[in-house]
Amino acid sequence: MNLQLVFLAVYLVALVALGLWIGRRVESSDTFFVAGRRLGPVLVFATVLAANIGAGSTVGAAGLGFRDGLAAWWWVGSAGIGTLLLAFWIGPRIWRLAKEHDLHTMGDFLELRYGKSVRAVIAITLWLGTLAILAGQLIALAWILDVVAGVPKPVGCLIGGLVMTIYFSAGGLLTSAWVNLVQLVVLLVGLLIALPWALSSVGGWSAIEAAAPSASADYLGFFQGGGSGWHYMVLLVPAFMISPGLVQKVYGARDERTIRIGVGASGLALMAFAAVPPLIGMIARTANPSLESHELALPWLLAEMLPPALGSLGLAAVLSAELSSADAILFMLSTSLSKDLYKRFYRPQATDAQVLKVSRWAAVAGGGLGVLLAIVLPSVIDSLKVFYAVLSVSLFVPVVAGLHFRRAGTPEALAAIGAGVAALFATPELPGIWTPNTIGLIVSALAFGIVALARARKG
Fold it and tell me: What is the DSSP code (8-state) at residue 202?
């Protein structure tokens, strides 16, 4: 009998049971969307950090460490920098508006600031883009089940999709916050124990240094190595400042102090954690440089290099990471469809019970579509880059400008969204910092500014 598989199966069933038990207390859309705005610093810290440590931060980042070396720190480290800016800049400002105007989603803020047309455009754009990041979490989970038990990728994606959909649809943010707390404990304990054990088993840091020259000349460089480096900041810092899933978790905080403490602590923890997956990837390369895929580095190390009990804990930790991020994504999908589209445009007279029902079914639909997309997309990082790029160029400028420039309106926001997304997909991949995402952000800001100046002169 495969004891690791049994351990993981029991753990997944326990998460589902916890989610269903907590979900019994959720009887209103306010609790489902923002947990009644009662989350304290500990739950805010846990749910934000757990949402940020997902497939890209574990399986993806370890794969980048295997391929590129220490510079892979910037993949997760950039997310930590963005989270700190959310804690001390964007978060408190947008929470005040949410409290004052009873906002539940990012779409509520966009309509308050720019009108319902901007709300509709962003809701549709992000619903499509968000499916890509959901697929990334499921791909990572499938890699784990493949390494542990030879489970085919489509079956692994389906298992992950079922688990996250059941426990999230039961109770929304309230369920996620408590389940995320359990997942976070398992995640941090598992990986922080696995790292020194694995490092010792390959002969320590000197063994990694000895293997580095065969990988690349800059394998031990911090700022740039292979395809990784500080340029990830352009892609990830803006995305983690204005991600609807994270902003909506901020809405659930009980006050601004909770945001600064809880979200700020999660940003610092994320920057510290950023070194762990790349180091694990580098250890895996030292032990097995001919691994079939670099994104198998983390699950392979946990399954093959560690004692069964410790490896099982580590694998459960990675499953926790994928599921905690996946439920944050389902949160975006379900609230966007039910509140931003169904309630606002299709059935404005819908009751609270009807909105709650649609939210749950939207989570089911999003989970199903995410499974299908995960089966098609080739890798975790490929899927995540699609989401982060679309998120940054479509939302960053309208959200930041909406919090600071009261005179800007619908034309400026639509111009920024349209120009940014068009530039993103029209720009070819270029080396260094001048990526399609960089060009998209610049063009979005210019479009916003040009329209604002034109309207000011006309007025």
Answer: T
* pLDDT tens-place string over residues 60-82: 899 999 999 999 999 999 999 99
Note whether residue 390 is domain-resident: no
CA distance 66 to 288: 10
Tell me what pLDDT residue 354 has: 85
The answer to whether the predicted template modeling score (pTM) of the entire model surpasses 0.90 is no
CA-CA-CA-CA torsion for 327, 332, 334, 338, nearest 10 degrees?
A: 160
395 in a domain, yes or no? no
H-state helical runs in 405-435? 410-426
- Are both 199 and 53 inside the same structural domain? yes
Most confidently modeled range among 39-53, 64-78, 110-124: 64-78
Surface-to-core class of residue 58, CB atoms within 10 Å of its CB (0-12 exposed, 13-18 middle, 19+ buried):
buried
Residues 393-437: tens digit of each pLDDT: 999 999 999 998 888 899 999 999 999 999 998 988 776 678 888
Looking at the structure, tell me whether residues 216 and 150 fall in a common domain: yes
Task: Give the span between the Cα atoms of 4 and 246, in whole angstroms.
Answer: 32
Q: Is the pLDDT of residue 131 over 90?
A: no
Residues 356 and 250 grouped into a single domain? yes
Cα separation of 99 and 216, whole Å? 52
Number of structural domains the chain divides into:
2
Single out the residue in 322, 349, 382 at which a domain terminates: 382
Q: Is 387 in contact with 133 (CB distance < 8 Å)?
A: yes
**Is residue 370 domain-shared with residue 413, that is, in the same domain?**
no
Beta strand pairing call for 228-229 and 224-225: antiparallel
Out of 346, 367, 382, pick the residue that ends a domain. Answer: 382
153 domain residue, yes or no: yes
Contacts of 271 (CB under 8 A, 6+ apart): 76, 77, 80, 81, 84
Q: Are residues 34 and 141 in the same domain?
A: yes
More confident residue, 445 or 332: 445
Question: What is the domain range of residue 459?
Answer: 405-459
- pLDDT of 1: 45
pLDDT, averaged across the chain: 83
Cβ–Cβ under 8 Å, residues 277 and 61: yes
Distance CA 283, CA 306 (A): 12
